Amino acid sequence: MITEPKISSSKPVGQTGPSYNKANNNKANKSPTHPVGGLVWLGRLAGLLVAVGLAVYNLGYSPAPWFDEGEHLRVAKTLVQYGQYAVWSADGFRYFGPTIGVGPTLLLPVALVFKLVGVGLVQARLVILLYLAGAALLYWFYARKLEGSGPVAWLALLLLLAAPGIAFINLGRQGLGEIPASAFFLAGLLVWLVNSERARPTWPGWTAAGAFFGLAAITKSNYGLLLPPALALAWLLNRFYYRQARLKWTAFALPFALTAGGLGGWYLVILLFLGGSDFATNFQLLRNASGGSAFVFSLERMTSAWKFFLGPQALFGLAAPGLIYAIWRARQRTAASFRLVLPLTFCLVWFGWFLGASVAWPRYAFPALLLCPIFTVKLLLDLPGLASAWLKRPSWQPKMQLITGLLLAGLIAGGLISQVPETLKVDDSAQQLAAYLDQQVDRQATIETWESELGFLTGHRYHYPPPEILDKAVRLKWLGGTGPSLAGVYQPEKLTPDYLIEGQFGRWNELYPAQLLNSRYRLIITFGDYKLYKRIG
């Protein structure tokens, strides 16, 4: 077993910050390191108040309800109204697609709220806000435990709330799975870290960490695909490099099994009990609905992913430097360095997939970017000491600390303020169209559309394209696919719907060609991006 070396009473050369030894840690945790402590606390309070305002204000209209959110919330609505874990349409119940995009860890609490107080967008988003608050609190506890510093935890949390590309607050205002999954993931990381630092780590601790990881995988399936390889890589590093003898194979095997088993078990439940058909048919439907955006290996998408990762949208351009610095800090074979291994292997595996194999949608980078503010804040706090030691100019360190402090304050303030206009904006075009449909259109009429949010906002009889059309859309619009357009493979006029609604999603995917709209339908009314047509032939 390799033990951590003793730390002398003086600070090691080239290192600054509050986490060199226990005495410094305790001192840092009792009071801010900034000389003007009251202003530091005032800044933290102001940042948190702004973040809370950005999270709760104008919740029903910003962001406007859209395709992904509508897909997920329709499952909770169908469960309450029909008792089926599916989505209802003119075809009947569809058991795959939306039901595997987000897990029951989100949809069941939303359905419970709908059952208690009625179906509504604000009600659903309030559930997400609770997850948002829990994730933010867990983030602070994890950052503080990981770095042993209260100031690092506060700055990392505020940077997370402010950072572009991560969009932590914005995602916490929508019926999506990123924030709930991150809450379970952070809980798992925290439990794993706490248990790993016990004199005698226990298997119930590893089981609890694995259970949280499994819940994250059920909520968003990518965790179930990428977290197990990260755990396996962490085990290999410990086995052959760090050699922390306290950590047996169960430290990695139990979380691995529970993460993969959580996702696999949930899919098995869907196939056996919630699919509405036999296993073979359900399995084929599941494959069709899963699509191909997870592993595409497209050079064009790789280029786009790298531009995002190295550009200003990824934590103000500081995600990559922070990650590199964390890797450099983890180079020593000590218990302190080993603390970084699991979050680092997770980030490396996830970024490896995002940069090399995925369709490179920015939301796909969210779980790994989530941890980068901790690494970046640590880099900026340590940079003055590192630079002054390398340049052999100790007298420069206070000035550089002031510069990095102002940089962090500016990034946090600017990032939070930049979110204000979007939060204040009111886009109620979907609600206006929903109100018009309730007043003017018979609920027995069939409405063709690909705007799934309308199926949540009203109780009309909608017909939607089948889930496999979404995979074709991804390949045509994002992967440079060849072959017929969506209009060539999907022909809704054969269904003779009474009405057709073209919104932003259907228009962007060119699902309904102008020739069809002009020859078979008459435009009745427009609300924002939505156009309502009535069949004439």
Offer a quick outline of the entry.
This protein has 537 residues and is mostly helical. It has helices at residues 22-30, 37-56, 67-82, 98-101, 104-117, 121-147, 150-162, 168-171, 178-196, 203-219, 221-242, 250-274, 279-290, 299-310, 319-329, 335-338, 341-356, 366-369, 372-391, 397-417, 420-424, 429-440, 452-457, 467-477, 486-489, 504-508, 514-520, and strands spanning 87-89, 92-94, 446-449, 461-463, 499-502, 521-527, 530-535.
Keywords:
537 residues, mainly alpha, 5-stranded mixed β-sheet, two-stranded antiparallel ribbon, 7 strands, globular
Model description:
With 537 residues, the protein is mainly α. The chain has helices at residues 22-30, 37-56, 67-82, 98-101, 104-117, 121-147, 150-162, 168-171, 178-196, 203-219, 221-242, 250-274, 279-290, 299-310, 319-329, 335-338, 341-356, 366-369, 372-391, 397-417, 420-424, 429-440, 452-457, 467-477, 486-489, 504-508, 514-520, and strands spanning 87-89, 92-94, 446-449, 461-463, 499-502, 521-527, 530-535. It folds into two domains: 33-64 and 99-422, no CATH class; 428-535, no CATH class. Helix content is 63%, strand content 6%. Helix 10 (203-219) crosses helix 12 (250-274) and helix 11 (221-242) packs across helix 17 (341-356). Residues 1-36 have low confidence and may be disordered.
Largest sheet: 5 strands, mixed
The amount of helix comes to 55-70%
The geometry reads as globular
Oligomer: single chain
Number of strands: 7
